[in-house]
User: Fold this.
Amino acid sequence: MQQQPQSLPRRHMLAGSAVALASVGLASFTRGAVAQAAPKPMPAYVSWKEPSNFIVHSNTTIETRRSAFGTSVITPSEQLYIRNNLPAPDSAIVTDRDAWEIAVEGVKNPRKLSLRELKTLGVETTAMVLQCSGNGRGYFPSKPSGTPWQVGAAGCVIWSGVPVRLVAQALGGVGEGMKYMTGTGGEKLPEGLDPKSVIVERSVPTSAMADALLAWEMNGQPIPLAHGGPLRLIVPGYTGVNNIKYIKELAFTAKETDARIMSHGYRLSPPGAKGDPSQPSVQEMSVKSWINSPNADQGPVKAGTVQILGVAFGGLNAVAKVEVSLDGGKSWASGRFVGPDLGKYAWRQFVFVAKMPAGEFTLASRATDSAGNVQPEQRVENAGGFNNTSWADHAVKVTVA
Ligand SMILES: Nc1nc2c(c(=O)[nH]1)N[C@H]1C(S)=C(S)[C@@H](COP(=O)(O)O)O[C@H]1N2
Ligand SMILES: [Mo]
Assistant:
């Protein structure tokens, strides 16, 4: 068994009583002033995560509650969402992590490298937002199929590993005409199905190599199996699916992979249409923010001075500014970033201190990136429910009493 972090609920909780109530099977527990359904238990492979932090959509789709995001930039592993397209591999793969092997193809001298050897080629650390392409899908009125994520299929994570460009260099450089970097997940594929229809294999432009890592550490610990240990491809600025867990092959290729998850999955298709290779891929992330507190889990907010807290990030660009509205977007004022700037791929926590009298409020946040792109009011409708960056959809209604 791998060592996993032990956790206690972090925030807003009458921790002892809530856990006690849940464990004796009562139907609800108290979080602040609001009674909630008892949290669903975590599946065994992530039993080390604290259930009250999560909305468990299924065994393989588990999102962080708005109310569980902390205020200190990094999302601890115990609070980070989970999204698996296939069941995770057996935990045997993390018993001898350094023995894990990755095949590197499409370079002058292609070969297999062990994690032990990768660690000799270089090291870099990057903080970045890991966000599922479907984060915010739950706010599409069209109810696209797929997990109805709200805000919590995202987190800000620190990864440590070897820059992919140094690995390519050590193998003689990327081959001529290789326009894509294609990563393949190490899951055992279900039998009796066309492998291409189920394999997790994604291609990103070779330009993404500049900041990509083959990472073995997450938030200062060996990457937990559930988050892709022993080795994960990290492609900062790109959506979650491109960050291949338990990566077993990295290939520089002339074309995008024809795996279904690339050719038909994660395509921006018009409402009613199916995904196909002619439609744009959901790849780079763009500017987005949302408010984490106050939130619906907390119940009425006490009138007076209210700390409005949230996160803002720019995707491929740094985030430059965030504004907050108390009136559903009619008027805006600047929020203040809190805590260290961990680089352009990380999110910033923000605070806006508001004087709020009793009443009903719609709180919204709107971020601007370093290139001047402003988070839009409306989502772009699409069949898959991808890329929802709408500030209106992410607004929170609160009662101040
Ligand atoms: N090998 C592999 N890598 C994968 C996936 C997967 O199912 N298998 N899921 C992808 C998707 S869709 C997302 S959103 C992220 C989720 O990362 P997390 O579970 O560590 O939060 O991993 C990506 N990498
Ligand atoms: Mo995802």
Notes: Residues 290 and 310 are 6 Å apart (CA to CA). The two ends are 49 Å apart (CA to CA).
